[in-house]
Amino acid sequence: MKTITVCMGSSCFSRGNSKNTQIIQNFIEEYNLSDSVQVRGCLCEGECKHGPNIRIDDKLFSNVYSEGLIDLLQHELLQENPQ
Ligand code: FES
């Protein structure tokens, strides 16, 4: 099980994580990943100036804007779960 943790602090949220959350949910549905990926929110991680921040397991990804998010998800989530 992988865990995606989306920073819901006000800085990351307004920089793009409000939209990113929706994109992540759609991605999980589209690829039927709900049994292997869980999504959580977290409070500010103290890295606001590099936001929006998203963590996948222990890896922190910064400056995750919606344009690059699908590529990131494909790279991080699909390699071990080929469809
Ligand atoms: S709001 Fe996300 S690191 Fe501060």
Can you characterise this structure?
With 83 residues, this protein is an alpha+beta fold. The protein has one domain (2-78): Glutaredoxin, CATH 3.40.30. Helices cover 41% and strands 22% of the residues. It contains two helices and four strands, in the order βαβββα. The chain has helices spanning 10-30, 66-78, and strands spanning 2-7, 37-42, 54-56, 59-61. Strands 2-1-3-4 form a four-stranded mixed β-sheet, with helices on one face. Helix 1 (10-30) crosses helix 2 (66-78). It is globular. The model has no long low-confidence stretch (mean pLDDT 95). FE2/S2 (inorganic) cluster binds next to helix 1.
What topology emerges from the helices and strands here?
Layout: E1 2-7, H1 10-30, E2 37-42, E3 54-56, E4 59-61, H2 66-78
Parallel strand pairs: 1-2
Antiparallel strand pairs: 1-3, 3-4
Bound molecules: FE2/S2 (inorganic) cluster.
FE2/S2 (inorganic) cluster binds next to helix 1.
